[in-house]
Each structure stands twice: as structure tokens, then as C-alpha cells.
Design brief:
This protein is α+β, with helices and mostly antiparallel strands. The protein has 12 helices and 25 strands. The strands form 4 sheets. Strands 19, 20, 21, 22, 23, 24 and 25 form a 7-stranded antiparallel beta sheet that branches. Strands 1-2-3-6-5-4 form a 6-stranded antiparallel beta barrel. Strands 7-8-9-12-11-10 form a 6-stranded antiparallel β-barrel.
Length: about 525
């Protein structure tokens, strides 16, 4: 670096140093002033501290005892737990002891006529060998169960237990036997009511329960005489409700249970754990004939109506809704604009019937009766049958997206025209057939189409011409020799006094023709 630069730099250094000495003296005075102020402030703070309550006391050490961790109590279980050996040994024995004496055995003996040679069933052979083939008697025995529902000996059982029986015996729990009289046997409900003469003795009974209060999962007991081994009690649960089967004109509406039910249990009691009658054991689902855990019982509410009908005059007279219908499937629901499948689509409405008087029309859907849902015609028939003629019921009716409640007054099905029950005589293909005019009452009894008209065959004598030609109960005679048959009198005129018969018979959804020369 050039010398002048160094000088210049040095001279500049000395001048600030002298100035700093003067400034340092001033800073020292300022620092003293600040220090003095800080001491004063500290003194004021110390004075305030020592004047506080408890200030100046020597510090003390506190011993703190650690507290245990407190957890919330566990939630209480809703199930009751056995608290004693007596509770562990809970049993259904008291219920069985009270109910079992009111469950009886029912023996039915029937005599049937059978042909020695089955070829005589063929009308072709009967024409050559005559219509009166050699017959032989066969004695058949059936075994079932029954329930005493009135102390004077009124017994409820299944129709199929006593159907065709000519000699019916009831065996009580104490081994005594009584001959029984059939007061009514109703194939529509598959229920029958028997009466035995107790000579004034009061018998134990099973009181009716409310089968509509039974729920899936409830414990039930099935009591009967399976296979004739003796009275047997089995336990299970209600597996399902509202099981239906059969035709749309019957009242089959079952309680399903897994309590063991076997042949011989038919007509026995299905009871709740408080000893009330929930249903009459009726059928099982089985491929082998034995129990596989699917049994069915007729609800007690329907059985009660049958008993009330007998007590009121000896004939079962069930209320009628006055319409036919079918279950609403997913496809039908979609086509009708319904939100979901379910209910009964009304097809035919009988003019002047309960449904017509309530303003319900064909094409509308009934979804509930008095708040209980219905999903098919059987369940609708059941709900109506548990009411009495003259009762008012509230129906939930849907038409598209419109839903309304209507009130319908139930009635008995009319017999219009009168039945005019007649057995065809003379020498013709229908000789020996019992026939009657069709009406809503007759159609319901025969489980046929509500609006069917004409002349229907009620029964056939198997040893007569009509039996040999294969006519059946439920066949409707539509015409004879081209003449339409509308009344029994028309049929009598058409079949007698001629030697050739061209008959048109309606059987279900088929039309059959038969030509016979006399």
C-alpha cells in the first residue's frame, strides 16, 4: 500500500479514539443511573413479596399419597344369571304336569270298500263285465292326538285324523277310554271338534292363548302320541310365522316350529311356556316321514273360532271378505308402481260383498288387516276367518302410490242360488254322483273359485257309474249333449231319458269331454 495511505489511515484512527473516551465517561454515568433505578425497583418488589400472607415462611415439603386409578364399572349384562342351584335346575315339568292331562289320544276306525280286481276301475272293462264288480271290505286304523278345550269333554283335533272314521275312541291320559261323537269336521281348516260323555266329570283343559302374540324365537312345547309309543313332550322354538300352502281359497296359515312332531302328533297341543294353547300340531315337512325339524301348527285363534262355531249351533261359519286375489310379486309391484312387493292384488270382487261395499275395486292391493300385514290370499282369508260375521275390520289399501284405510263389515258368504243337493239317479254316466248348485258359500266349502257358477259334483259313490267313469268331487258339469247346465234341474233333465251322452266337464283349468253310449 502506498505510504500516504497508511498515514491517512492512522490519523483517522486517532481522532475517533479521543472522542470515544469522552463518550465512555458519559455512558458510565448513564449506567450508574440505570443500576440505581433497577435497585430501587427490586427493593419495591421485595417489599411487596414479604408483605403477602405467609410470605417469608420457610418452605415446607408436603408428602402426597398416590391415589389408585379409578375405572368406570363394567356394563351390567341384561341376561339374568343363575344365583342358586335351584335356578340352575329350572324345568318345564310344572307346565307339563298341568297341561299333559288335557292332551288325549284319538283312534279312528274306518271301513272302506275296495275292488278285488283293479281292472274294474277302467270304464272300458266295466262296460263288458258290468258296473258292479266284486268288492271287499278293508278296515283302516288311524292314530292321532287331541286337546281338551272344555271341561265337559269338548275335544279339538285335526280333520284328517277322524275323516271317514266310523268308530272313534278317545283315550285320556289316565288310560280311560271313551267313544267320541264328531260334532264338526271342517276340511277347509283341517280342524274337527269331538265330544265325549264324561257323565258330569270335569276334565282338565288347555286354555286358549293368543297366537297373534307368538313371536319367532319363543319357546314352545309339542305334546302328543307319536307313532303310538305313548304321550311324548318335545321342546323347540317358533321357527317362523305365517307359513301358507294349498289353494288360495283355504285358511292354511301355520306356525312353524322345530319341536319334534311325528306321525301321531296330529291334533296334539303346541303350548307356550306359560301353559297356553298356541296351536294344533298338524303337519310336518319330511321326505322320509320322520321329523327333520320342520313342523306346522294351526294357530289357536283360528281353532278358537271353530270351537265357537260349534258352541253356537254345530256348524263352522267363517266370515267372508267377498273377493279373490293373488300375492303381489316383484314384477307385479313394479307394474303397479308400488314401492315394494307384498299384499294381495284383488282380482274378482263379488257384487254386494263386504269388499265391494267398502269401495275396494279389482286391481287394488290389500296390504294389511287391522294392522296385521297380509302377503297372499291364504293369509287374508285367515285374518278374516279369525273375526266374526258382522265385525268391522280396517283394511290398508294401496292403488299405485295412493294408500288409504277403509272399513269393511264382514258377512257370511251367500247361498245364491240355493244348493239343491241331489244324488243323480237312473242309468247314466253320472248315476251315484251327489251334485249341487254353485254359490259363494258352496265354492268356499269346496275350496273353489269364488265366482264359479254351474252345477258341481260334491261326492261320488265309488261303486256307481259315476265312480267307474272317474268323476271327482269339484268337477263342474258344463254341458250335456250341447245343452248348457246352469242348475241341478237342468242336469236332471239332460241326463235322463236318452241313450247317448256327450258331457263337457271342467276340472280345475282343464275342460274334459266324455262320450258314452247307453
Amino acid at each position: 500500500m502506498p505510504p500516504f495511505l497508511l498515514v491517512e489511515a492512522f490519523s483517522k484512527f486517532r481522532e475517533p479514539a479521543e472522542t470515544d473516551l469522552r463518550k465512555g465517561s458519559q455512558r458510565l454515568k448513564l449506567m450508574k443511573t440505570v443500576s440505581l433505578a433497577a435497585i430501587v425497583l427490586a427493593a419495591i418488589a421485595a417489599l411487596a413479596f414479604w408483605t403477602m400472607p405467609g410470605a417469608g415462611a420457610p418452605p415446607t415439603t408436603r408428602m402426597v399419597t398416590p391415589q389408585p386409578l379409578r375405572l368406570p364399572p363394567p356394563p351390567q349384562r341384561s341376561e339374568a344369571q343363575p344365583s342358586s342351584m335351584a335356578q340352575v335346575q329350572l324345568t318345564f315339568a310344572p307346565v307339563v304336569k298341568r297341561v299333559a292331562p288335557a292332551v288325549v289320544n284319538v283312534y279312528a276306525r274306518s271301513v272302506t270298500q275296495v275292488q278285488v280286481n283293479p281292472l274294474f276301475n277302467d270304464p272300458f272293462f266295466s262296460q263288458f263285465f258290468g258296473a258292479n264288480p266284486e268288492m271287499r271290505q278293508r278296515v283302516q286304523q288311524s292314530l292321532g292326538s287331541g286337546v281338551i278345550v272344555r271341561a265337559d269333554g269338548l275335544i279339538l283335533t285335526n280333520n284328517h285324523v277322524v275323516e271317514g272314521g266310523t268308530d272313534i275312541v278317545v283315550a285320556l291320559n289316565d288310560k280311560r277310554e271313551f267313544k267320541a261323537k264328531v260334532l264338526t269336521a271342517d276340511p277347509r281348516t283341517d280342524l274337527a271338534v269331538l265330544k265325549i260323555d264324561t257323565k258330569g266329570e270335569k276334565l282338565p283343559v288347555v286354555p286358549f292363548g293368543d297366537s297373534d302374540a307368538v313371536q319367532v324365537g319363543d319357546l314352545v312345547l309339542a305334546i302328543g302320541d307319536p307313532f303310538g309309543v305313548g304321550q311324548t313332550v318335545t321342546m323347540g322354538i317358533v321357527s317362523a310365522l305365517a307359513r301358507t300352502q294349498g289353494s288360495a281359497n283355504d285358511y292354511q296359515f301355520f306356525i312353524q316350529t322345530d319341536a319334534a312332531i311325528n306321525p301321531g302328533n296330529s291334533g296334539g297341543a303346541l303350548v307356550t311356556t306359560d301353559g297356553k294353547l298356541a296351536g294344533i300340531n298338524t303337519a310336518i315337512y319330511s321326505r322320509s316321514g320322520g321329523n327333520i325339524g320342520i313342523g306346522f301348527a294351526i294357530p289357536a285363534n283360528l281353532a278358537r273360532r271353530v270351537v265357537e262355531g260349534v258352541e253356537g249351533g254345530g256348524k263352522v261359519r267363517l266370515a267372508w271378505i267377498g273377493a279373490t286375489g293373488q300375492a303381489v310379486t316383484s314384477a307385479i309391484a313394479e307394474s303397479l308402481g308400488l314401492q315394494r312387493p307384498g299384499g294381495v292384488l284383488v282380482k274378482d270382487v263379488y257384487p254386494g260383498g263386504p269388499l265391494a261395499n267398502a269401495g275396494v275395486k279389482s286391481g287394488e292391493v290389500i296390504t294389511a288387516v287391522d294392522g296385521a300385514s297380509v302377503d297372499d290370499m291364504q293369509s287374508l282369508n285367515y285374518r278374516i276367518a279369525t273375526r266374526k260375521p258382522g265385525d268391522k275390520v280396517k283394511l290398508r289399501v294401496a292403488a299405485g302410490k295412493t294408500v288409504r284405510d277403509v272399513s269393511a263389515t264382514l258377512a257370511l258368504p251367500p247361498e245364491n242360488p240355493p244348493r239343491e243337493v241331489t244324488t243323480i239317479g237312473g242309468r247314466n254316466p253320472l248315476t251315484g254322483a251327489k251334485v249341487e248348485n254353485l254359490s259363494p258359500a258352496a265354492a268356499l266349502d269346496l275350496q273353489m273359485d269364488l265366482l264359479a257358477k254351474g252345477v258341481v259334483i260334491v261326492s261320488v259313490n265309488p261303486n256307481s257309474y259315476s265312480g267307474n267313469y272317474g268323476f271327482r268331487s269339484g268337477d263342474i258339469v258344463r254341458s250335456v249333449n250341447g245343452v248348457s247346465i246352469n242348475r241341478v234341474s237342468d242336469l236332471n233333465r239332460a241326463v235322463n231319458g236318452v241313450s247317448h251322452w256327450d258331457l263337457v266337464i271342467e276340472r280345475g283349468n282343464r275342460r274334459l269331454t266324455l262320450s258314452v253310449d247307453g
